[in-house]
Design a protein that fits this description.
3-stranded antiparallel beta sheet; 337 residues; mainly beta; 3 helices; 18 strands; 12% helix
């Protein structure tokens, strides 16, 4: 009955810059009921929610030293989060669903969005007065074990007084046909050596860094409502929004042409997936906003990297080791310290 989990592939391609979906696939999937649809979608895209938040919390710094007053740089960075093997599958538990069961109870490991490109367990849906019964396999993954943040992060860093630096991220809302996306964020870096006399003269820089980032995307769906006059297709859309927060303690050492840095980082993110609008499911059965799921992630990790300075141009790369590990690379231009 369900040919593939296209709505979830749509979620991934939103951030890859291309949109492809099948309206029939989405409506077929919703034919298994609102509760089942929401539960399956949440399990399937959960690693995406974590990865998106992890990427948004990356790339905020490439040194432990704050810019001096009047110094600044403009930075472009691309974070990539890697999906561990234990995040590529989820356990399908029939107790979490309504009128759904496994044909083979031993075959209960289903791919997430980042799982192997093979269909999952065979599931039986009992149906009800509005929805037909049937058997279907849980959808395959993409076979992709990583997730980059696209487009690249654009960030301005400006030095203030008392070893303090402010950071601003911004991507204006861009609309192309039915798709729109926008992002903004801000952060602050503050040197702590000035408060600890015993380390004030050590040849390292130490700072605390805090950040916040918001990203919102919308894609119009426009399903054919048939002859139902109660459905406004202009109100049908897929909304994805994320809020990410991080706090880091980072230390760095300047050498000729190169700076090495490392630290500890705490990250939190809340990503919301909403299938908004009215949809006809079964016969004369209209569901409003059938999917509204929030995925929260919280993790701590270690971070280390290096920055190569070539005049006003710098190139940097770093890695973060956590539950969802990542690598960030980028360039910056400006008047660095």
């Amino acid at each position: 009955m369900v040919k593939k989990f296209t709505i979830l592939s749509t979620v991934l391609t939103l951030f890859a810059g291309s949109m492809s979906y099948s309206q029939d696939d989405i409506t077929d999937f919703l034919n298994f009921g609102q509760h089942n649809a929401s539960q399956l979608i949440k399990s399937y895209v959960e690693p995406l929610g974590h990865s998106l938040g992890n990427n948004m919390n990356s790339g905020w710094y490439n040194t432990g030293q704050a810019h001096r007053l009047g110094r600044f740089d403009l930075r472009f960075a691309v974070p990539v989060t890697f999906i561990g093997d234990n995040k590529r599958y989820f356990e399908f538990d029939p107790d979490d669903y309504i009128r759904m069961s496994l044909v083979d109870p031993e075959d209960n490991q289903a791919p997430t969005l980042f799982g192997d490109d093979e269909y999952g367990p065979l599931v039986f849906f009992e149906g009800n007065e509005n929805l037909e019964e049937g058997r279907f396999r849980l959808p395959p993954g993409t076979g992709i074990g990583y997730f980059p943040l696209v487009p690249p992060v654009l960030q301005l860093n400006v030095g203030l007084v008392r070893d303090t630096e402010v950071k601003i991220r911004y991507m204006p809302t861009v609309s192309v046909r039915d798709f729109s996306a926008g992002s903004y964020g801000f952060g602050i870096k503050h040197g702590v050596k000035q408060y600890i006399p015993v380390i004030e003269h050590l040849p390292v820089d130490i700072s605390l860094i805090g950040s916040y980032t918001n990203m919102s995307t919308t894609y119009g769906l426009h399903f054919d409502p048939g002859d139902n006059p109660d459905i406004d297709i202009d109100e049908q859309e897929l909304d994805i929004s994320a809020n990410a927060y991080s706090a880091s303690l980072v230390a760095s050492r300047r050498l000729p042409f190169i700076t090495v840095y490392g630290g500890v980082r705490y990250m939190y993110a809340d990503t919301q997936f909403i299938l908004a609008g009215d949809y006809e499911i079964g016969t004369d059965n209209i569901i409003t906003n059938p999917v509204d799921e929030s995925i929260k992630s919280s993790q701590a990790g270690l971070n280390a990297g290096a920055r190569l300075k070539l005049g006003i141009l710098s190139i940097f790369v770093d890695g973060t080791w956590a539950s969802y590990s990542s690598v960030t690379g980028g360039i910056s231009m400006g008047f660095h310290n």
